[in-house]
Amino acid sequence: MLLQLKNVYVSYGNIEVLHGINIEVKEGEIVTIIGANGAGKSTTLKAITGLVNKRKNSEIIFNGENITNVAAEKIVERGISLSPEGRKIFPDMTVMENLEMGAYIRRGDKEGFEKTMKLVLEMFPRLDERRKQTGKTLSGGEQQMLAIARALMSRPKLLMLDEPSTGLAPLVVKDIFHTIKKVNQSEGTTVLLVEQNAKIALATADRGYVLKNGDIVMEDKASSLMNNPDIRKAYLGERTHSDD
Amino acid sequence: MKRLALLVLVFALAFTGVVSAADTIRIGCYAPLSGDSAMVGKSLVDGVQLAVDEFNAAGGIDGQLIELFIEDDEQTPKVANNAVNKLIYEDNVIGIVGTVASGCVLSSMEISWDAEVPHITPIASGTSITHMGNPWIARTQASDELQAGAIVRYAVNDLGAKRIAVIFQDGDYGTGGAETVKAILKDEFDMEPVAYEQFESSALDVSAQVLNIKNADPDAIIIYTMYQQGALVAKKVRELGIDAPLMGCGGLTNAKLYELGGDAVVGLANTQTFFADASKAAPSAAEFITKFQEKYDGRIPDSNNAMSYDAMRIMIEGLKYSWEKEGSFVNTAIMEGIKSVKELPLASGTITMDENGDANRDILIIGITDGGGYELIK
Amino acid sequence: MVNFIQALIQGVAMGSLYGLIAIGYVLIYNAWGILNFAQGDMVMVGAFAVLVTHMRLGLPMWLAIPVALLICMLIGFLIEITAFRPLIDAIQQRRLIATIGIGIFLRNLVRVVFGADPYYFPPIFDNTPYKVGSLTIVPQNIWNMVIGFLLIGALTLFLKRTTMGKSMRATAQDREAARLMGINVKRSMSLTFIIASALGGLAGMLICPVFYVVPTLGTSMGNKGFSSALFGGISSDGGSMLGGIVLGLLEAIGATTISSAFQSSIAYAVLFLVLIFMPNGIFGKKESRKV
Fold first, then answer.
1. Smallest Cα distance from B207 to chain C, Å
2. C18 vs C107: CA distance, rounded Å
3. How many A/C residue pairs have CB atoms within 8 Å?
4. Number of continuous H segments (helices) and E segments (strands) in chain C
5. What distance in Å separates residue A70's CA from the closest CA in chain C?
6. Per-residue model confidence as pLDDT tens digits over C19-58
7. Spatial contact of C239 and C19, defined as CB atoms under 8 Å apart
8. What is the DSSP string of A211-229?
9. Ramachandran bin of A25, using left for φ above 0, alpha for ψ from -120 to 50, beta for the remaining angles
């Protein structure tokens, strides 16, 4: 087991947004968490990276180590990398500089850096063309690619992606998910994917969790979830007669 | 402060031994004794104290000695008001000497005015103090009007200047002084300044103003500022190659002027009421210098010491006048006595009080010498 | 004409001092997202620090300046951990008031210790003016300008070429993303603050031989530096030097051609117009706010 969330509670002020959730990710898997807006998906990823505080008794185990209370800036050293919601690339830095920041924890290792850079740019040829451009001049799709590429620069064991499809054209979304699959297959990188676009998320993932109002309400193989009528109705936009 | 007043009292008793506290003449004194102007405040108190000691040692008025009550005004109008209130209503003084800043005097004299207590300010120079219709105020400092007149006459009559430039800092002191200079130039000599340049008191760079002066090609430059700004102006004037002589008023008198301005201020002339050179001074001034040095371990008195000493001396004149006329100390008689002082030789010159309470006297012109010393010009 | 050129020279000389001060405002604004109103007082702290090391302790100038810089860095660090870091998530107004408060505290502390009177400070470089025709040029002013541009150059190199500099920029642009990269955001922000404090202090050290050392130095010069930063574009490191020179020129030309009584008013009126029509400053980049 690569990642285990046991009984994770998160509150913002007095409002509890995660009510003790349990999630497991095995090495080499692509796991997705789907759910409506505000279900707590992003909070789950933030809880793992240490950007939000967990209530005590919450436990997060990664690679056999308890990382529940590890500070956010130390998480990437443990092998977890997050491509955050809203991309959060550095707008006034060039593509190259953004990638360099992605490899910040490996700043002593020039050779390794060059190698990873080459690999990542091969995966995202569009970024290679835009090396010297600043982040803010890129298109939405390119910015998303840069966010993922930057996350890969630390050579993580677990790549976490928060809503990579938001605001992108369907063709671009397809392209990006294709690359995610490629990263998983060729590099063996484990992926934890949070998505509102359940259709493409489930099509890409091996397993899925359904998060509703801060609780995991369902967990199954992605293909099974895809065929579950409740899921289809609630998250895949399929309508039944009674809805009319 | 109470303790200090008590000490003064004990000191007075120790020296006389025969007078009971009931026979004392209660006089109040207030000055900035803490904060940035504490040094000036101390000068004031030292000068006043010397006059009181001298008076008491000579037996006072028919054995009645002065008891001095001292308060700190922190150079803040509000605190000055409190000080005067306390002096009048708690210490029951019948006369007050103080303070340094014109703003503090203007604010706190409302209280002595209201209580009809004779009040002499030794150091504040703001013209308006004696022009507000307050019959209970008088001062020993030469008003800005007197000083400005003296420096303008020096420039025109003694130096033969025909093209006078004026540079001044904004605020009461600079603007008020510069306007007075302008008016006297017009009234007495029918002249206009060739340049009339203002800058902010907080400004450090005065190059634009000095450039305008350079453009006007003056043959004398009157600087109406305090010494800090005066140093900046003088430095810039010489830096930009203007050779015209520099002059100004009492605000420029400070050892810091030379420290900050260096060679640029050598030769700068300014008005003064007192010059601490016993060999050149008038007999009354020389006597003061000797007495002051005896009392304060050889320290050389400055003009603030002298004017504060004189303020107390004029207060004593008022007291004597009242005692002779009324057989007691009556506020109206004391004030009448103060204002009837005529050609009295004192530390800071021979003084005649006018109906407004201003001290008319000759103004000295002093100049800065190489190395930062002063010489008496006239 | 000669006088006009002389006015230009004075304007550029003052402007480069303004520019030097502006850099500190820009650095902290970019890293902390806030205008540090105490930055002007760091200029004053720098002037007093070198006054102490050179005039009081008698260190030679080449040693007095670095020691004074260390003092500025230490004071900057103390300000950061007491008034900036604890309020990092507070509302903007509170943070602004904290910076104003720190400025007042510094001014009064120095006033209590050193008094309100100004102090003389000897020239670091040759201060004797020399004449070119009927024009006057003061070497210290030229040095100030050269040092200003050199500092901007060095700072730009540091921010663009070194990993540490880049991590500081990353922190400035997106604090949360920087943490995700493994950047120690606290340290990076402290470093920015310390560098800005040192730059402010250095500006003060270069200014004090031209004028004098006084506790209110930061108020007058700080306002000019802050305005220069706005002129140059608060988000642009390189613009501050040029912004300062523009402000210096405006003051000099306004005062010599219109009226010296309105010296500052003229400059500020132009600043208002710039802020209305070019909100990002004359040399500023388009504001990039993340979605």
1. 7
2. 19
3. 76
4. 11, 2
5. 12
6. 888 988 988 888 888 889 999 999 999 999 999 999 999 9
7. no
8. EETTEEEEEEEHHHHHH-H
9. beta
Residue B23 and residue B96 in one domain: yes
Report which of B153, B163, B147 is spatially closest to residue B224, judged by C-alpha positions.
Answer: B147
Q: Which residue of A has its CA nearest to C170?
A: A90
> With an 8 Å Cβ cutoff, are C211 and B215 in contact?
no
Angle of the C61-79 helix axis to the C39-50 helix axis, nearest 10: 140
For residue B222, give its domain range. 145-272
B150 and B134 in a single domain? The answer is: no
The verdict on a CB contact (< 8 Å) between C182 and A100 is no
pLDDT tens-digit profile of A27-68?
A: 999 999 999 888 899 999 999 999 998 887 899 999 999 999
Which chain A residue's Cα is nearest to C187? A73
pLDDT tens readout for residues B316-326: 999 999 999 99
Domains and CATH numbers, chain C: 2-277 (1.10.3470)
Percent of chain B residues topping a pLDDT of 70:
94
Please identify which residue in the block is written with the tokens 């001014």.
Answer: C107
C80 touching B, CB under 8 A? no
> Domain containing B149 — which CATH number?
3.40.50.2300
- B259 and B153 in a single domain? The answer is yes
Give the DSSP letter string of A146-175: HHHHHHHTT--SEEEEE-TTTT--HHHHHH
For residue A42, what is the domain's CATH number?
A: 3.40.50.300
Whether B369 is in a domain gets the answer no
Domain boundary among B243, B272, B301: B272
Q: Please indicate if any CB of chain C lies within 8 Å of the CB of A88.
A: yes
Judgement on whether residues B26 and B125 belong to the same structural domain of the protein: yes
Q: Which residue of A has its CA nearest to C186?
A: A73
State the residue range of the domain holding A135: 3-243
Helix, strand, coil percentages in chain A from 3-state DSSP, rounded to 5 = 40, 25, 30
Beta strands in chain C (DSSP E): 130-132, 135-137
Chain C residues in contact with A89 by the CB 8 A cut-off are: 174, 177
Chains A and C are touching, with contact defined as 3 or more CB–CB pairs separated by less than 8 Å? yes
Domain count along chain B: 2
Taking CA–CA distances from B228, the nearest residue in chain C reads C118
Q: Which of C207, C259, C201 is nearest to C14 (CA)?
A: C207
B164 shares its domain with B209:
yes
Are C3 and B214 an interchain contact pair (Cβ–Cβ within 8 Å)? Answer: yes
pLDDT higher for B102 or C284? B102
Checking if the pLDDT of B13 tops 70, the result is: no
> Residues of C with CB below 8 A from B232's CB?
211-212
Mutate to test the interface with A, among C174, C181, C287 (most CBs of A within 10 A): C181
The answer on B221 and B150 residing in a single domain is yes
- In total, how many domains does chain A have? 1
Neighbour subunits, B (≥3 Cβ pairs < 8 A)? C
Q: Using the 3D structure, point to which of B272, B290, B305 is the last residue of a domain.
A: B272
Q: Do B228 and C212 touch (CB under 8 A)?
A: yes
- Same domain for B136 and B26: yes
- Supply the ipTM of this predicted assembly: 0.90
